[in-house]
Amino acid sequence: MTPDLFSPASYTFSPYAAPTLLTAIAILSFGLIVLIREWRSRVSFSFFIMTSAAGHGYSATRSCIAPGQSRRRRGRLANTSA
Length: 82
Description:
- This protein has one domain.
- By secondary structure, the protein is an all-alpha fold.
- 6% of the residues are buried.
- The longest helix is centred in the middle third of the chain and has 21 residues, at 42-62.
- The chain is elongated.
- The chain is built from 4 helices and no strands.
């Protein structure tokens, strides 16, 4: 099971992942813009850290399993139990 997780062939492109990617990029961009404009402030650095964690967390939790991989797992589980 672990080799399938790290294999790029196990993942497929899904158009439903595009809004999640755009939202994560928007969150990261917002934090980066604030950091660039107010680079002397500790608050802007903290805000950048918060937005980078939120952007990464949002993208990681929304697209952690590709639709093709979940279908393959169900098929494999059905074949092994028979």
